[in-house]
Design goal:
This protein is an alpha/beta fold. Helices cover about 45% and strands about 15% of the residues.
Length: about 300
């Protein structure tokens, strides 16, 4: 058992509240925060998996059950975190999963279930934690998005749409909370060697349409081929998020991985090019100022 922190050390510790902390990036962020000497409230649907995966040799870890779609459970978990550690400094909205398939192939039920977790679950937890952050006039919300929430192609459009929503929510929160001392960042990972492409995290749309075999179908095959061989190191991603939170001026966006940087830069260049090509048409849609009336004949000028 490690010694309890001294009062001066305790004042410097951050308290993290992390969703989806039993595996993947959520687990690596929790490990990195603990290694940095911070305290962690690790929430997960599978609390036993979180307990097995995280170090139990100190008093800086609290593991709580949380299904992010359950508003009451989110409020209870936030209250328990404050009861245990006195505050929450960092909220990491990480819980989520993916759906592979063309937009038309993805059913209404599949799309709604995905948004319930990836978007409405994030909102549930954010609403549960924000009263504490506002009362403190301090804190940091870190939303784990995806490069797929900035640049999207065939085969995962509904998942990408959920992460585009996370981008928009993050931008709005950044504008709303900046005057209250609360930082907000969306992290945009590329492909990391987690279990995200395993069936537990990446579900397949229940329908396949032959016309999409060369687009969305090919993308499904790519997911299977790259699984377990992704170039990104999830432990380094966790350390990067800790460095982000401890930065003096954290950014609104943080891409992670060279593939994320490449896709974002390519889209920005594409958008800039299209704007130049279509600028004249875009600018032509405004109201024209009314022409000045000509003076009446014989009237004064």
């Amino acid at each position: 058992m490690t010694r309890p922190p001294r009062p001066e050390e305790q004042s410097k510790m951050m308290v993290w509240f992390i969703t989806g902390a039993s595996r993947g990036l959520g687990l690596e962020i929790a490990r990195a925060a603990l290694a940095a000497g911070d305290r962690v409230v690790a929430t997960a649907r599978d609390v036993e998996a979180a307990r097995r995966a995280l170090p139990q040799d100190g008093d800086g870890l609290l593991v709580l059950p949380l299904e992010v779609t359950d508003q009451a459970q989110a409020r209870a978990a936030a209250a328990r975190a404050v009861e245990e550690f006195g505050r929450i400094d960092v909220l990491v909205n990480n819980a989520g999963y993916g759906v592979a398939g063309a937009v038309e192939e993805t059913s209404d039920e599949e799309a709604r279930a995905l948004f319930d977790t990836n978007v409405f679950g994030l909102l549930n937890v954010t609403r549960a934690v924000l009263p504490t952050l506002r009362a403190q006039r301090a804190g940091h919300i870190v939303n784990i998005g995806s490069v797929g929430g900035f640049s999207q192609g065939a085969g995962s459009g509904i998942y990408g749409a959920s992460k585009f929503a996370v981008e928009g929510i993050t931008e709005a929160l950044h504008a709303e909370l900046s005057g209250l001392g609360i930082a907000v960042t969306v992290v945009e990972p590329g492909q990391f060697r987690t279990d995200f492409l395993d069936p537990a995290s990446l579900r397949q749309a229940g329908r396949t349409i032959a016309d999409y075999a060369d687009s969305a179908g090919a993308r499904r095959s790519q997911f299977a081929e790259v699984n377990g061989r992704q170039l990104g190191d999830p432990a380094k991603a966790g350390q990067a998020v800790v460095a982000l939170v401890h930065a003096e001026r954290p950014p609104l966006r943080l891409p992670l991985g060279q593939d994320s940087l490449d896709r974002i830069e390519a889209k920005l260049a594409h958008v800039a090019g299209e704007i130049e090509v279509w600028r004249e048409l875009a600018e032509s849609t405004g109201h024209q100022p009314a022409a000045a009336s000509a003076p009446a004949a014989g009237g004064r000028s």
